[in-house]
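pinned: reference chain
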Amino acid sequence: MSPSPKNIYSELLHLAWPMLIAQLAVMAGGVIDTIMAGRLGAVDLAAVGIGTSIYFTVFVTAMGVLLALTPTVAHLHGSGERERVGEEVRQSVWLALLFAAIVMVILQHPDPLLGISQLTPEVEAKVRAYLDNLSWGVPAAMLFRVFYGFSTGIGRPRPVMVLNLIGVIAKVPVNAIFMYGGLGLAPQGAPGCAAATTLIGWLLCGLAWSWSARNDEYIPYAVFRCFSPPRWAILRQQFKLGLPIGATYLVDVTAYTFMALFIARLGPTLSAAHQIAGNVGGVLFMLPLSIGHAAGVLAGHALGASDRMRAQQTSRLALGLGFGFALFAGSAVWWSAATIAALYSADQTVQASAVILLHIVAFYHLADATLGVTVNVLRGYRKTTVPMAVFAVMLWGVGLFGGYLLGLTDTFGAPHGAAGFWIAAAAAAALAAMLMVTYLARVAQVVQVAE
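pinned: its structure tokens
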């Protein structure tokens, strides 16, 4: 019997909205850091911005490998193999600790990364202190990601949402103590922001695992039943599935980072306009990303239970839902571009440039949303290598290199500036989305035939 679309929509939204709130809470933490650092002056603000960029690039790449746990747990949950879930989680902890050690070394010895930036001594000193403080929170952040993979994989995203909201609520007072001084602590400026992040990270990590050890919904998975030494067969399988996910995140992050660096050559006005467009695009992407995460989990549950038809229908409905929301959001951005630009900047020159970019973002978002949903559904099918290759070719090749040619050179006529980069990015996302949708259809068909 074919599953009811109404039931699938209900399941998608039930999982997606807590994931959306959790994602927005993480973004809100970054906004709080930026605003509070801005009160201290340009040096501290620059240190937070540069330090965050370095940390985000390194951490997200390593964290992406751990995301292999979510589809693995989803399949086992769907097939009813609960105790195997516990073993997968315990092995993922070993993987998390390994990557935490690697990331800590990189953050505590950032000379190769700082050499590229050519910072002033004052900013560099603060960036180094910022990264050092952040490094001590990396193990907590990695272990929290294991909890995230476990919790979302069994269809329980609300604890992650609640914990992220606790983190946001704690951010302002803890930041204030470390950054501005208080409770006997001397003001640390930007490095204090990182110390606050580390402290909150360990708090959330402790709360997450304490919750999972005591809550009745988690106990059947027997995560704490025994100690498991590293089992290379499981670790190798997790690494094989997760490495392409980490590489995909690396491609995505570096493509956007280098896009911003190239646009910075065009001057502060276009750089500011690009920041506005990028921020709006990032916020818009949170909803289809959440739908994609939810669809990937539900598809994993269905595949684990050998219900291939439900997995296929979940994929189709998620794509339709994601595109529908994207069409609405893109239209809203198109018609209100001038108002949005004015909210970000009082400079009319920046506003005018931002309006042009926001009009491109309205179209870019349609492709970006489709791509985000499809890639996450494919992770539910445990297909990660082809998406990684498509991202590399499209985002680096068509998006970044094409944007360089279109924006900064006369290869295709007069240089189009920042708009050229966004046009190339939209084209890359559209091509990638078409390839990924085609690949998903092929994967679903092959699985159905095999069944």
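why pinned: The chain has a mean pLDDT of 85. The chain has 16 helices and no strands.
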